[in-house]
Amino acid sequence: MAAFIFFLLTTYYLLSRKGGSNEMLPTSSEDTRVFRRVLFFFCDIIFIMPDAKTSAKNILTKLFKKYPDPEIALRFRNPFELLIATILSAQCPDTRVNKVTETLFRRYQTAEHFAQADSEKLEREISSITYYRSKAKTLIECCRKLASDFHGIVPQTMDQLVTLPGVGRKTANVILGCAFGQQAIAVDTHVLRVSSRLGLSHSKNADKMEHELMRQIPQDKWTRFSLALILHGRETCTAKNPRCPICVLYSECEWPEKKKINAIP
Ligand code: SF4
C-alpha cells in the first residue's frame, strides 16, 4: 500500500511540473487531464473517502438519536395523493398544502378526475398555494400522462416517474421513499443547505448531491436520513439564524460560520 501511495504522489508531482516532459507519461494535454482524473479518483478512495464515511457515520448516529422515526409532513393516504401533494409543495409550506389537499382529495380522487378537471376551477381550488396557476396546469398534464401511460396508477420506478410532467428526481424520490417504502434520498432545499454546511457535499446541483450522499450513507438508511435531515433543517439548521449553539451535530459540522453564532434565536 505504501509503495502504491508513493507511486501516486510521485506521478502526480511529475505531472504537476510546468513544462515537465517524460516519455513514460501522457504527453497531450487531454491525456494528462484523463490521467490526473484517474489519479485523483484513487487518491479520493485512499485518503478522502474513509474520512468522509466516518464523518457521515457520526452524523447519522447523532441525527437518528435526535429523530429516531422521522416522517414526512405531507398528509396522504396513497401514492397518488402523495404525488399530487408533493407537486403542490414546491416552494410552499407543507402545512398550507395539507390544508388545501384535505378538501381537494375529496373532490379529485383519481388521475382521471384531475385529467378532466376544468383548469380555472382547479386554479381557484388551490389558489392559496404558491404558483397555483402553473401548478394547476402541471397537475392536469401529469394526471393525463398518468392516465394514458400508466392506467392511472403511480409507477414504482425512477425511470417511469420522471416521465410525468412536474416530476423530477426529488419528487420521484419522495414518492419512492415515503409511499413505496424504497430507499431514496430526496434532495430538497433543506437537504441541500444542511449537507453543504455539514460538509457532506458541496455540490449546488441537487442530482449530483444525491449521488454524493448515496455514496456516503448506507443504502438501508437513505430514506430515514433524508427525512431526518429535512427535520433538522427546519427546526435547527434553518436558512436564516441557524441554532448552532444547541445543535447536536455541532462537532461534526464543517461550516465556519457556526463559531460566530453565539446566541440562540
Ligand atoms: S452547527 Fe449550525 S450549521 Fe452546523 S449543522 Fe448545526 S445548526 Fe447547521
Short description:
With 265 residues, the protein is mainly α. The protein has helices at 2-16, 29-66, 79-88, 94-107, 111-115, 119-125, 132-150, 158-161, 169-178, 189-198, 206-216, 222-235. It has 12 helices and no strands.
**What value does the Rg take, in angstroms?**
23 Å
Shape: globular
In DSSP terms (H or I, runs of 4 or more residues), the helix count works out at: 12
CATH superfamily of the largest domain: Hypothetical protein, domain 2
Series of secondary-structure elements, N-terminal to C-terminal: HHHHHHHHHHHH
Low-confidence sequence ranges: 17-27
Largest sheet report: none
Quote the beta fraction.
under 5%
Describe it.
This protein has 265 residues and is mainly α. It folds into two domains: 92 residues, Endonuclease Iii, domain 2 (Orthogonal Bundle); 100 residues, Endonuclease III, domain 1, CATH 1.10.340. 59% of the residues lie in helices and 0% in strands. It has twelve helices and no strands. Helix 1 crosses helix 2, helix 3 packs antiparallel against helix 9 and helix 6 crosses helix 7. The chain is globular and about 65 Å long. It starts with a helix and ends in a 30-residue tail after the last helix. It binds iron/sulfur cluster (SF4). Iron/sulfur cluster binds next to helix 10.
